[in-house]
Amino acid sequence: MDYRKAAFAFVCLLGFAILPALGQTTTDDTQEAARKQIRDEARRQAEAALTKNLLVEFISTAQETDDLLGDVQKKADVFFPRIESLLSNDDGKRIALDDAAFINFMHLREEPPPSRDEIAAKKAGIETIIKTLKDQVDSTSVGYVPPISVKDDVARTRQWALESATKINDANSWIDAELAKTKSSNDLSKSPTLKERIDAYNATKLDMLAKSRLLGEKSAEQESQQKMQDAARIAALMDAQAKSDQLVRDMRAELEREHVEHDMELKKMKSDQDQKVADLQQQLATAEANRSRQAAASAATIDQGKEDAEKTRLRQKCNDPHVQELLRPFTTLGYWQPAGSFSLDKVPVSFAKIREGKALNRDEQGLLALVAIAENRGDRLRPRWSMPPNPRRMTAAQLEEAKEAQDNLNELGPTMVELGMLSP
What we know:
Layout: H1 2-25, H2 28-86, H3 90-97, H4 99-110, H5 116-138, H6 148-182, H7 194-258, H8 263-318, H9 321-326, H10 328-331, E1 334-337, E2 341-347, H11 351-356, H12 364-374, H13 396-419
Helix pairs in contact: 1-2, 2-5, 2-6, 3-7, 5-6, 7-8, 8-13
């Protein structure tokens, strides 16, 4: 580099200028000591010059990141007021009237670009780093080298700023495209505002949850009543059986008293009574079959409610900011796909490709495959992980982060495909 050559030239010139004078006035030992002192001083100055140049280069990179955050901040200052105005203006009404546009707008509200407060916090952090670095450059003796963590922080913030700008641009482009499709000269004065449509949508969701809960309670009450009715039938059958037994005993006693002439009449009466018992048993069997069918229907209703509740839980977890941040290397739109595949459209990473590559296996090879997807530098559109490709070289925090991402993909993969957050 140029500054290294300059330092070397300085050492040579300084030595050539001073050594002749020393030779005239000092002994050989004194001359050698002077030469060593000159070499040490020259080396120190060269190292200081090198450190300062590296520091200046890093400050330039940090300043570029700060400028980029400033641009993102300007975009956000325009974007968020625009979103707020759509809740009440005619453009928002046009979106509210189009079901597909409305659903897409709800997704945008659930997954918005970074807020102005987040951007401001990132910018303040970068500016603090820049001030610290500039103070070190202005110091009389430069010996400060920024730690790796600071360099990584600047690199991550730069990537975050680029992604944030893309999100805002994409959101604005989507709104422009939707408004271009729904533009018309129709009178919108009586149409609901976008806020009114959102409130109605949220109210409908709450009503559906309440009805589902009520249905489960009614099913339980009906099952309880059915069991009470069955118990009453069983008690009646047992009472009838007891009466029948008593009647048989009475008839046998009568036969003993009246002998053979009453034999035929007794058999007929017993046959009739046995038929009554059979009829009651048949009624009990029918009642038990009906109860089983009703119980099965109630269980199916309850199971459906549990399934719906589980789907709701999984969808909510998919929308959790921490989960979304952790899985951005997979959910961000791009062309590259695992195993060297390529898509002509910008889509999320394919869940099937992740699974086929054994990246969801809960072992070392599975983590190797997962990290290979998330940190592949050939994918230039999606955010990349900054961690070693081999789990054995990761820090504990990096290893836990990779394992958490793998666990979330195993649990949420099918739901994320259903929501369009991952490709099939």
